[in-house]
Specification:
2 copies of one chain form a homodimer. By secondary structure, chain A is of the alpha/beta class. Chain A has a single domain, classed as Rossmann fold (3-Layer(aba) Sandwich). Chain A contains 8 helices and 7 strands; from the N terminus they run H-E-H-E-H-E-H-E-E-H-H-E-H-E-H. In chain A, strands 3-2-4-1-5-6-7 form a 7-stranded parallel β-sheet, sandwiched between helices. In chain A, helix 7 links the parallel strand 6 and strand 7. The first copy, chain A, is globular. At the A-B interface, helix 1 and helix 5 of A face helix 1 and helix 5 of B.
């Protein structure tokens, strides 16, 4: 007897999309942009956020929601760089965050006292690409240690992302990674993707990253003020 | 109205387990061991297999089944190092290989003319850990560029693996990666896991890896001969 997986999956996805729309509305009304960071395990999401919190948390009020299959290691790391509560979601086996988890995390966030929300998704280039969380924009990180062809092999993730951060560029002298080829593959999959070359270790590219974040904050608060 | 995802998922998994058992029986009967390689994207599965085929294919008859979400890039890379057909499975969005795909691939393999089967799974530390493919043993690769705590964050994968290859050790001088701590985390999750330090670029650890492969080939053919 055949198994009707697709229908059930579609219903779960449809439920998720409804909750994601609610999350998006809630954030829009509050004038708070949110960025969903996705990547392979170990591409540098947490280190980027550690640096970002250390550098910007004094001037920006940043909320963070951190997903992992197991452990709250990443949330613990981030909590050292902010006085605000870090929200850890342990998925317990699930390969991605979903909108319900974000909604529950935001219930404990005072959005009127928040400029920006970061979501650090589960380290995985496949599954998170299928789940809307209500975020403003997607950011995909890929490390120069992973090889140039990741955009071609995981196109859905790179197609939906507004920004691609090529991370760990401080390691380029020790690798055969061809930056131009990687950017070419990124543009093949998503001609509009904005590409940054970054190293959270040396700080390369972080000023550009921070400008993007500040632009999101200005834009979201402006839009909310207009519609209020 | 609640959605009964679990039941359907369990039925799909049960179907998969039945097919995996058939695959395992087929391989056991033929005296052919199979190794399922899993890791994050870009941890070095393909480069390890390229080197392995280049070094061993003259003496061992190796069949390869390569899974990717998109592209047959990895299969193309492997095909340069073997005269045998490389079997590419494009999952088209699915985050793991399943037993049906392995069974279909093996239909085109003459097992009587094969010493060893490699399965290169989709680059993902989460989903492939839940799917039995009928393999003899699981091999997990994790690169020194990914950070020491991957075994703690993706424990299911590391628990089921018989071997852990810590890859790209040639990059250790340029990283803060603590090998002893990583091995400690591996053993916390799986006290019996066999750990190899490898670099497919310099060749470090590959002799030990090849000894493991030859041991599997000898053992499987011996067991098949005994039971014949």
């Amino acid at each position: 007897m055949p198994v009707r997986v697709i229908d059930v999956r579609e219903r779960v996805m449809a439920q998720n999309d409804l909750i994601a729309a609610e999350v998006r509305q809630r954030l829009d009304d509050a004038g708070v942009p949110s960025l969903n960071l996705m990547s392979s395990p170990g591409a540098g999401k947490t280190l980027l956020l550690e640096r970002t919190l250390a550098d910007l948390a004094p001037s920006l009020r940043i909320a963070t929601v951190v997903g992992d299959v197991q452990t709250q290691n990443d949330a613990d790391r981030l909590s050292r760089h902010t006085s605000r509560l870090v929200h850890a979601v342990v998925t317990g086996g699930a390969c991605h965050l979903d909108a319900r988890q974000i909604s529950a995390a935001l219930d404990a966030v005072d959005l009127a006292d928040t400029d920006l929300v970061f979501i650090e998704n589960v380290g995985n280039l496949v599954c998170p690409a299928s789940w809307d969380l209500g975020q403003t924009s997607d950011v995909v990180l890929f490390a120069v240690t992973e090889g140039e062809d990741k955009p071609l092999k995981y196109p859905k993730m790179f197609k939906r992302s507004r920004y691609a951060l090529i991370t760990k560029v401080d390691l380029l002298p020790y690798l055969d990674f061809d930056v131009e080829r990687a950017i070419g593959y990124l543009r093949d999959v998503n001609p509009n993707i904005e590409v940054l070359l970054t190293s959270a270790r040396t700080g390369q590219g972080l000023d550009e990253w921070y400008d993007i974040l500040r632009g999101h904050v200005r834009h979201a608060s402006h839009v909310a003020a207009e519609s209020a």
